[in-house]
Amino acid sequence: MKRMLTVLLVVFMGLFFAGCAKTLHSITVKKEIGSQEIISSDYKDVKTVSIDVITDKEWTEEANTLKTVLEEQIKSFFPKWNNTTNGDAKISVKIFEVKRVGGFARFLVGILAGRASISADVELKIDKKTEKYHIDAKAAESSPFASLAGLKSAALGNTALAIDEMAAVIMSILTGKNSDEIWQKIQEERIARRELEERPSYMIYDAAP
């Protein structure tokens, strides 16, 4: 009996520390058959953009977060595009699955907790051209010990990281830029905002004379 418990403990610890190891983000992008290709020259007459993210009520928070991230990145990459309800460029996202995994769950069961992920159908439309994709995005996770230690990257939350992965892929399709670089940009901006929010009020002041 004692030997069996020892074996089980060894197996558990192996799975736990496997879950602690850093995992590369995993993205699957499938373009629908018959989908058209939007190229950079199609953007020349675009002045407005509309972003629509829908889902079941269960994942409303994730949908709102993804929409916010996309709006921020659109402003960054296409500063001349104005956000509106019926834009020249249309980005439609339908989230149909979200797997939430918190840092505490990772700490308790390691790799058995899995990785936070988000799956969606994405449609990009400019003029008469429409591109359609199915995208699965899994979060890149650091050690659950990082969450307990309060490290900034872990403090973002695994589900938020999966949402950022999805946003990075969509922006990569729009811009032709590397999705990993866009993801890193989103992370840096998120961390900067978090630091500002957590800064004590007495440290926030107008530096102008």
* Quaternary structure of the protein: single chain
Number of helices: 7
User: Strand portion, in percent?
Assistant: 15-25%
Specify the overall morphology.
Answer: globular
Radius of gyration over all CA atoms, rounded: 20 Å
- Strand tally, please? 6
Distance between the terminal alpha carbons, to the nearest Å?
75 Å
**Which runs of at least 5 residues are low in confidence (pLDDT < 50)?**
2-23, 104-113, 142-156
Please specify the SSE layout and strand pairing.
Blueprint: H1 2-20, E1 26-31, E2 48-54, H2 60-77, E3 82-83, E4 89-99, H3 103-109, E5 117-126, E6 129-138, H4 144-149, H5 152-155, H6 158-175, H7 179-198
Parallel strand pairs: 2-3, 2-4
Antiparallel strand pairs: 1-6, 4-5, 5-6
Helix pairs in contact: 1-3, 2-6, 6-7
Outline the structure in words.
With 209 residues, this protein is α/β, with parallel strands linked by helices. It has a single domain, classed as Rossmann fold. Helix content is 44%, strand content 22%. It has seven helices and six strands. The protein has helices spanning 2-20, 60-77, 103-109, 144-149, 152-155, 158-175, 179-198; strands spanning 26-31, 48-54, 82-83, 89-99, 117-126, 129-138. Strands 1-6-5-4-2-3 form a six-stranded mixed beta sheet. The longest helix has 20 residues, at 179-198.
